[in-house]
Amino acid sequence: MDDLFGTHDALAVAELVRSRKLGAAELLDGTLARLRALNAGLNAITDFYEDAPPATEGPFVGVPYVVKQLMADCAGHPTTVGSKFFATQPVAAKDSAAVARLRKAGLVIVGRSNTSEFGLAPTTEPAFGGPTINPWRKDLSPGGSSGGSAAIVAARGLPMGHATDGGGSIRIPASLCGLFGLKPSRGRISLAPIGETLAGAGAQHCVSISVRDNAALLDATAGGEPGDPYRAPPASGTFLDATKRGPGRLRVAFLKQPVSGATLDPVLVGAVERTAKLLESLGHHVEEAAPDYDAAALDAAFWTVMSANTHTNIRLRAVGRTPGAGDLEPVTVETARRGSAVTADEYIRSIQTFHRTGRALGAFFETYDILLSPTIARTSLPLGTVCMDGTLEAFDAAVAPMTAFTAVCNATGVPAMSVPLEWTEDGLPIGLHFVARYGAEEMLYSLAAQLEKARPWRERRP
Predict the structure, then answer these.
(1) Structural contact between residues 93 and 75, judged by C-beta atoms closer than 8 angstroms
(2) Which CA distances in Å does 140 have to 69, 114, 173?
(3) CATH number of the CATH domain containing 317
(4) What is the pTM of this model?
């Protein structure tokens, strides 16, 4: 039990439970003990749920799982959004739609994972509860805002964990922790009971060790709820089946710098070039090319939408309560203040920028199937790099290299994945980012499985 998830992914563990080679109670007790031991050094899990109901069926029957403290409710518990102000209230009356589907898939929710306050920062260092440590090196952040789930999965405490993504928050920690992370298309997984988040930029899924776990979980959680504002086109088959077939010959474009024109670390340029050669060796057509959109305008639009949503969401969740001094972190306060001043004209123009960028990306994917780049424009993230207690200007500058390749996918709703294919000279993981046209998760999973076989990563661990 001590290293079960070092040798078995979630589907394999579920098969042990199903065949009665491993008892569900033994699995739960052993996993909880290991999680508590790991968490003492990682601070990845904020709350443990000792009363998790047992599972009796589903593809992941009996497998323990954690749900991030953001965008997903577990009945009878608060969703803290990483904030002192929401530490105890409101308490969720029922599971959100995605959590209900997780339980139906057989997962046993044993706790909640750490996040930055309101998911604003691409790190996981909230004032409420403290920072999560990257298991690869204790002076590094696992990224964010899904850093709690990523850290515990990277440490092999679990085979996968819930994650959300409003600007890169699945893919950033996947990159920094050596995991596989896929952000689905807009509307692929329902956000019910909320209608949308960040004008449709928000999504949820997981970080995982194996590609097939990731795909099988999307099979279990995909689909809309009545009245959803978006619904991704149905897949032609199952996502798990997509991992079992080749992707065919794909047309791949690669970037050696962000569309903004910022200079990229030579280590990351080398990682992209080697990955491009790997793709060529697998039979794909590969060439350097970039989509044509206004990166500066998109960044400004993104922060307008983020700020306005932060302001409104605080008020909605507070239900009449007023935050006092120290209840919210300084950057959260300033972001909300900036959001309160956003005019209708500014907000609508920002949404139009999202849509204009989406059309530019859509045109690009008429010529190419895949866009390759690094996941982030850094090789590591030392703790304290992205601060929530300074100025908005300093915060924005620290965030910029973290979301240079990821946020466009949120604004436009397209699927994207981070795959742990490269490593620094001192052994830290580097995620490579693959973007596809809207609704093309099957193609991404087929490619990911091909890459996983060509350059396996499971044995590389902290």
Answers:
(1) yes
(2) 21, 15, 11
(3) 3.90.1300.10
(4) 0.98
Question: How high does pLDDT run on average in the chain?
Answer: 97
Q: What is the pLDDT of residues 431-455, one digit of tens each?
A: 999 999 999 999 999 999 999 999 9
Spatial distance between the Cα atoms of 184 and 175, rounded to a whole number of angstroms = 16
- From the centroid of its chain, how far is CA 111? 18
Q: Domain tally for the chain?
A: 1
Q: Is there a domain that residue 461 lies in? A: no
- DSSP type of residue 110: E
Residue 69 lies in a domain: yes
Query: From the CB of residue 137, how many other CB atoms can be counted at a distance below 10 Å?
Result: 15
Task: Please give the residue range of the domain that contains residue 305.
Answer: 4-454
DSSP letter for each residue of 14-61: HHHHHTTSS-HHHHHHHHHHHHHHHHHHH--EEEE-TTPPP--SSTTT
Catalytic site residues?
68, 145, 169
Give the three-class secondary structure for 370: strand
- pLDDT, mean of residues 14-23: 97
* 383 sits in which H/E element: none
